[in-house]
Automatic annotation (TrEMBL):
Location of the DAGKc domain: 40-173
Annotated protein name in UniProt: Diacylglycerol kinase family protein
Gene Ontology molecular function: any one: kinase activity
InterPro entries given in the database record: ATP-NAD_kinase_N, Diacylglycerol_kinase_cat_dom, NAD/diacylglycerol_kinase_sf
A UniProt-annotated Pfam family: DAGK_cat
Keywords: Kinase, Transferase
Domain of life: Bacteria
Length: 346
């Protein structure tokens, strides 16, 4: 059962970690057959567009929903309406699913699509949110349009990325699917990022401001400071016996490039990647460059953080987690990389 912050589906990041939580039952998963090939350029390419009218750029400039043959549009305002639209697109057997929104919009579409499509079609992202990490990873221009995405798909220009699937307890169906998962300090840093959004800072600028403020909170906080105290997390990787740890930060992703060129997981590579930082961080000023640059640092510094590439992670925590900008309740979780998705790319 997924627990989400937003009462309405907006596809945007959370406003506050203290917002009221809503519960929503998750339908059963659909099976995962072999992926069907994308329609060749000579055949009609049926396109379904999900547009988030509340995304940053769409609010500012409008969604510019140009209509032409073989393209269907919808801008659902609730998660239930989103599922209904996707069921309609699945019935039409669309060959390209285009998401016009930010990372949160894409997260919700991927989560709903897993319950709707037997075979997920190729996808494309139109970056119009406050954060557009996947678009940056794929090299999508900020001014990309639906027409550009269709042209790329027809030309066969695709890049594959596997989403993170978050499962609860023994439920085999993912409660959510996204690309950037974090606990501990990442939850508090995301709250700070929301503050930077309110003063007009987005994307890389928001990352830089929230990172700087997080550092200040950690460096100048006392022993009981929530940043330094960390979060109690029980963590096990790839069948290893889970161990209870006090972590300053837990971060994992399937992205290969992150905003500002930071490399918390080391060099770019596919698959699920994990970074953990022990609490309290003993050498924060010295480990930060190593984490941001993707290096190991000195032997003493390297003992304070760990990088790994688990196939499956089991995480149990009383505190919540962030997935692509939204806060979810903690609990007994399993994380894994899902089936790779082909995204149209420039």
């Amino acid at each position: 059962m997924a627990t989400r912050i937003e009462r309405r589906w907006t596809g945007q990041a959370i406003g506050s970690a203290g917002a009221a939580l809503l519960r929503r039952s998750a339908p059963a998963c659909l099976p995962r057959p072999e992926r069907a090939p994308v329609a060749p350029a000579s055949a009609p390419l049926l396109v379904g567009v999900i547009a988030n009218g509340r995304s940053h750029r769409n609010l500012k400039h409008g969604m510019r929903l140009d209509h032409w043959p073989d393209v269907a549009y919808d801008a659902p305002e609730t998660f239930e309406a989103l599922e209904a639209t996707l069921r309609d697109y699945a019935a039409r057997d669309i060959g390209l699913l285009v998401v016009n929104g930010g990372d949160g919009t894409l997260r919700d579409v991927l989560t709903a699509a897993a319950r709707v499509f037997e075979t997920l079609p190729a996808m494309a992202i139109i970056p119009s949110g406050k954060t557009n990490a996947l678009a940056l990873d794929l090299g999508i221009p900020q001014d990309w349009t639906v027409r550009d995405a269709i042209a790329a798909a027809r030309a066969g220009r695709f890049v594959s990325r596997a989403p993170i699937e978050v499962l609860r307890g023994d439920d085999p169906c993912p409660a959510a699917r996204g690309f950037l998962f974090g606990m501990g300090g990442f939850v508090r840093a995301t709250e700070l990022a929301q503050s930077t959004h309110r003063v007009g800072a987005f994307n890389g600028i928001a990352v830089a401001l929230s990172l700087g403020w997080s550092m200040a909170q950690t460096l100048f906080g006392g022993a009981g400071n929530v940043w330094r105290r960390g979060t109690t997390i029980r963590l096990g990787e790839d069948g290893a016996t889970p161990a209870t740890r006090q972590l300053y930060l837990l971060l994992c992703s399937t992205l290969e490039r992150l905003p500002l060129g930071i490399k918390p997981f080391g060099g770019p590579r596919p698959g699920l990647k994990l970074l953990t930082v022990e609490a309290p961080p003993r050498h924060l000023l010295r480990i930060l460059p190593a984490i941001l640059n993707g290096t190991r640092g000195s032997k003493a510094v390297a003992q304070d953080f760990t990088r790994s590439d688990p196939a499956v992670m089991h995480v149990t925590a009383g505190e919540g987690f962030i997935l692509d900008g939204e806060l979810y309740e903690g609990g007994e979780l399993t994380l894994r990389a899902g089936e790779p998705i082909r995204f149209a790319a420039a």
